[in-house]
Amino acid sequence: MVNYILITGVSTGIGRDALRLLHSKGYHIFGSVRQEEEAKKLTQAYPERFTPLVFDVQDHKAVAEAAKIVFQNCSALFGLINNAGVAIPGPLEHLTEEAFERQLDINVKAVRRITNLFLPLLGAHPEFNGTPGRIINISSVSGLFSSPFNGAYSISKHALESMTDVYRRELRRYDIKVIAIEPGPIKTNIWQKNLNSLEQFSETDYYDVLQNANKIIENAEKSAFPVTKISTLIFKCLTLKNPKTRYIVHKNKLVFKLLAFYLPDKLVDWFIHKTLSKGDKHRPI
Ligand SMILES: NC(=O)c1ccc[n+]([C@@H]2O[C@H](COP(=O)([O-])OP(=O)(O)OC[C@H]3O[C@@H](n4cnc5c(N)ncnc54)[C@H](OP(=O)(O)O)[C@@H]3O)[C@@H](O)[C@H]2O)c1
Questions:
Q1: Distance between CA atoms of 258 and 30, rounded to whole angstroms?
Q2: Contact present, 29 and 10 (Cβ < 8 Å)
Q3: How many folded domains does the chain comprise?
Q4: 3 φ, ψ to 5°?
């Protein structure tokens, strides 16, 4: 019997590698992409046990159409991997309302919409008699620690952390496990997508610090793990009998935990302020 897994955002990065690994383990993958062209390419690469779903998570109608395909093709989902996401940097004061809304819609609201659509296939249904599926939310260490100038992203991932806890507690009655994966820097395009994106703030008071942004992004990339680190963990979360509720993936977990949970806020604020102005030293958490 083949088990079915749905992954959002399989065109690149973490989602793409999760598709590779989980497909190699024998699962049938429903993978979402935004471009028809990408769907064709992936169908050629995975002629069996792969169904592309073409939607932008912000397009409610396209998501509903894609859901029909999933419901027609399987009666249960082994897993739902909420991976699609964007990072929109900039000082909170100057981010446009549209940019802030887009950040929250893609990284938070769409996750709820998509999760709710597929809950019946994961086991939240009175007539469901299969094995309950698992939900894995690709969160971030930014959901535990708030970095300046990446505030909208941090806010979205904090909300996703909370959403993970709420779903886990609400879905306990169906035995649907809900898990957050919280990566630090991972080598994907998400970093390159943001290079030079802060130029638009060059007229603001914050620009002295933002000028170092490219260096900071380069530093983050240097300390980044390969994507396989996350896909392997996704597989573990899907298959372990008793997975943890959240997994931090960070090269220096101890320092991260110290900064995020134990050191006084004012000391952390001082440290960030001191290193931010020296872009070559600062690493975003
Ligand atoms: N890389 C890191 O260091 C890191 C660290 C912590 C957490 N994460 C999280 O990991 C997840 C995957 O990111 P990644 O690093 O693999 O970046 P990525 O390579 O940029 O992949 C993001 C994926 O999400 C898709 N996506 C973005 N906006 C979408 C939309 N509106 N509708 C549908 N799909 C959309 C992208 O599709 P397109 O190709 O069409 O844009 C792409 O497939 C994100 O949730 C991110 O926040 C990443």
A1: 39
A2: yes
A3: 1
A4: -95, 150
Residue 38 has pLDDT above 80, yes or no: yes
Query: Is the per-residue pLDDT at 116 higher than 80?
Result: yes
Q: To test ligand 1's pocket by mutation, which of 186, 216, 229, 230 has the most ligand atoms within 8 angstroms of CB?
A: 186
Rounded distance, CA 162 to CA 172, Å? 16
- 4, 27, 153, 167: which is the annotated catalytic residue? 153
pLDDT tier at 83, thresholds 50, 70, 90 = very high
Report phi then psi at 138, rounded to 5. -85, 95
Tens of pLDDT, residue by residue over 215-272, are 777 777 888 999 999 999 999 999 999 999 999 999 999 999 999 999 999 999 999 9
C-alpha of residue 238 to centroid of ligand 1, in Å: 20
pLDDT digits (tens, 9 = 90+) for 160-204: 999 999 999 999 999 999 999 999 999 998 877 877 788 899 899
Q: Is residue 284 part of a domain?
A: no
Report the nearest-CA residue for atom 17 of ligand 1: 190
Identify whether 190 is part of a domain.
yes
Interval between CA 266 and ligand 1 midpoint (Å): 32
Segments forming the whole domain that contains residue 180: 4-276
Could you tell me if the CB of 140 is within 6 A of ligand 1? yes
Write down the pLDDT at residue 282: 54
CATH number at residue 160: 3.40.50.720
Q: What is the DSSP string of 72-110?
A: HH-S--SEEEE-------B-TTTS-HHHHHHHHIIIIIH
Is residue 285 in some structural domain?
no
281 in any annotated domain: no
Active site residue 153: yes
